[in-house]
Amino acid sequence: MANIIDGKLIAAELRGDCERRVNALKERGVAPRLDVVIVGDDPASHQYVNSRLRDCADIGLESETHALPADATEAELIELIEALGADNSVHGILLQLPLPKGMDQDRVLAHLDPDKDVDGLTVANAGALYTGRQGFAPCTPSSVMTLIRSTGVPIKGKNAVVVGRSIVVGKPAAMLLLKEHATVTICHSRTADLAAHTKNADILVAAVGVPGLITGDMIKPGAIVVDAGINRVDGKTVGDVDFASAEPVAGWISPVPGGVGPVTRKILLANTLTAAERLNGAD
Ligand code: NDP
Q1: What CATH superfamily is the domain 28-114?
Q2: Is 215's C-beta closer than 6 angstroms to any atom of ligand 1?
Q3: CA 228 / ligand 1 centre spacing (Å)
């Protein structure tokens, strides 16, 4: 029977830390603030943004939404992003993706100030992660690392396997594990014999988007299994790991829901506070 990695509990601890940091900044006369930019009227995107705004309000972090209409031009969006970058009262900028058709995501992101890119989406922050410099890693892989660390099991020297190689989850998760001296393998849709790799993993991270892809027979007994997948199946949210067969084999396992997701939300807040602290000379 695996130990359950309780994302809700870890998120509650992070929330307390964040609240203390907000108060410390306010005592120094700094009102930390996250600005959210959303283009168009996709209901799921607006729902996501609203939940982030509630998270900010919950800890006293100021937030402002900039909603552009679906027919806004790329030039208007870039102008807004640059204005927020230049505004000293703004510490974090969250650009809700995907952008509407016709807008070039990479071109827009090139105008986002990396010091305020608290979601770690810019090339500058990807480069910082790759080269070991100071920056912001994307929130989901940072959450994955927080869950792994919460087990207390040393990462150094372990075989870590990341299934998925996206820019927002898989690749940065692999870089973060490498930074902590794991021996890292990245698997993807063209990997031959996925199970041969996963069975060798002391730490297994699933970031795929295929419900139940990782089954118990693909897991090394005692492994740490962290599931970043979010899939809707028959009206329920499930991960990429088949929890029922994986849980008796793994040593530690994060559930879906209640694992990576709640911690990811708090890491966005923590990154915004780090940005506010750095921009105000208290790193
Ligand atoms: P992408 O679709 O961008 O990437 C999926 C990756 O999985 C790709 O690298 C793909 O390989 C690989 N893959 C697909 N099928 C297989 C397979 N059968 N075997 C092995 N690898 C496979 O997804 P994301 O990285 O954006 O998201 C991954 C999951 O994480 C999703 O469920 C998403 O909802 C969730 N997510 C969760 C977040 C959270 O906070 N918990 C935030 C963001 C995402 P290839 O590169 O070859 O195509």
Answers
A1: Leucine Dehydrogenase, chain A, domain 1 (3.40.50.10860)
A2: no
A3: 9
